[in-house]
Write a structure and sequence with these properties.
Elements lengths: L6 H10 L1 H12 L8 H17 L3 E5 L6 E6 L2 E10 L8 H4 L3 E3 L2 E3 L3 H20 L6 E8 L9 H8 L5 E4 L9 E5 L1 E10 L3 E2 L10 H14 L8 E9 L5 E2 L2 E10 L2 H12 L9 E10 L6 H16 L6 E4 L4 H7 L3 E3 L6 E2 L7 E3 L2 H16 L7
Parallel strand pairs: 3-6, 3-7, 7-16, 8-15
Antiparallel strand pairs: 1-2, 2-6, 4-5, 5-18, 9-13, 9-14, 10-12, 11-13, 17-18
Length: about 375
């Protein structure tokens, strides 16, 4: 019977391919995939799917308005081991022209590199490792790459429900904590749009006939910020505002994008009700609230904590000192945990600047985190509880 590879052997495999990993990351980042840009995402998914095919996986796509979801698998016994990531980014088309890829001081800079094209690189690298080394897993291996995680997962989650089963072990290759630790807790997320309707009028001639939607929105912004409760882990952020047509016109409409974060499911539901019950101060104005809760919180379970402890032990064998941590960001891992999968999140590549102009990954982290992910798969394959 063939002996399983040691941590050192696994790490050597990926370090020998470090330049190829970096080149593949560059290629992925230089293909922009803005969330909800269906054509760009479809092109990326087709290319990524072909690479998984070459590594021996059977691929399937779920068409959707915002691009296809990608599902791939290797045959084996249940319960499966699942690798989860997403290919969409928060960056609009054209960002790369303004901030091209740059390599300096051991870091790879580029929009979408950290969140999470680097994670997609190590998933592919691990699939090739299993293929090249002829590793025959006992358990079924599944890969799910979502197309709309950054915009709430509306089209991805029903597809996940169709192909991913409760009791599976899910490793999410989202970025780790800032210190490299894996994630066992996440806040829940709600995404909303507020649309205020007032009445336009000439601001200089007859302003009294107007009802300013901008004024109404300004009052709402202050009200929402007053709902923040750090002690309970409730965070509201008004991230975008727009409205009006000209400075000399009382604004007839205004909109705002609102982000909600929460620790407890009950708090998320309560804040959702409060948002939907908003009423204007001026009775002549109207408020329309759209959107809603999209990611539940990731709450630690005994299974999650055992997986986290295993990751810490395997990381130590690779020369990494990590622990288990938490994140204010949502992910598909939170959704899968709520559906009964055993989830460990934050197994992606170290770096920083998610959703920021200095987004980057640590180049030396690419082979090490690939080795950690491979080690977690091999360890999970040895016991059905994956713990």
């Amino acid at each position: 019977m063939r002996q399983p590879p040691t941590a050192g052997m696994i790490l050597d495999y990926f370090r020998e391919r470090g330049e190829a990993l970096l080149a593949e990351l560059r290629g992925f980042v230089e293909r922009e995939t803005p969330s909800r840009d269906g054509a760009s995402i479809e092109s990326f998914v087709l290319d990524y799917s072909s690479r998984l095919d070459e590594a021996g996986l059977t691929c399937r796509q779920f068409p959707g308005a915002w691009g296809p979801q990608l599902f791939a698998e290797l045959p084996g016994e249940d319960p499966p081991i699942v690798l989860v990531g997403h290919c969409d980014t928060v960056w609009p088309a054209g960002t790369l022209a303004e901030r091209p890829v740059e390599v300096r001081d051991g870091r790879f800079y580029g929009p979408g590199a950290y969140d999470m094209k680097a994670g997609l690189c190590i998933v592919l690298a691990v699939a090739r490792f299993l293929f090249d080394r002829q590793v025959r897993l006992r358990r079924r291996l599944q890969i799910f790459i979502a197309a709309d995680e950054e915009s709430g997962g509306d089209t991805a989650h029903p597809c996940m429900d169709e192909v991913l089963a409760p009791g599976s072990t899910a490793f999410v290759v989202e970025p780790p904590c800032p210190d490299g630790s894996v994630k066992v807790r996440r806040k829940g997320v709600g995404i909303y749009e507020l649309k205020i309707t007032g009445r336009e009028a000439h601001a200089g001639v007859e302003p009294e006939r107007g009802i300013s939607a901008v004024d109404e929105l300004a009052r709402l912004v202050l009200k929402l910020h007053g709902w923040n409760d750090p002690d309970r882990g409730i965070q509201l952020n008004v991230g975008t505002v727009s409205g009006g047509m000209a400075g000399n016109v009382v604004a007839g409409s205004a909109t705002a994008g609102v982000d909600l974060r929460f620790d407890a499911p009950a708090d998320g539901e309560a804040m959702d009700k409060k948002l939907r019950a908003l009423e204007p101060e001026n009775p002549g104005a109207a408020i329309e609230v759209s959107g809603g809760l999209c990611f539940p919180p990731l709450v630690p379970t005994p299974e999650t904590m055992r997986l986290g402890e295993r990751a810490c032990r395997l990381a130590a064998e690779l020369g990494l000192e990590i622990s288990t941590g938490s994140s204010g960001g949502g992910s598909d891992g939170s959704y899968l945990s709520s559906k009964g999968l055993f989830v460990l999140d934050g197994l992606g590549v170290e770096g920083g600047g998610a959703h920021a102009v200095d987004e980057h990954v640590l180049i030396e982290s690419l082979p090490v985190r690939a080795a950690l992910l491979a080690g977690m798969i091999l360890a999970a394959d040895e016991d059905e509880s994956s713990a």
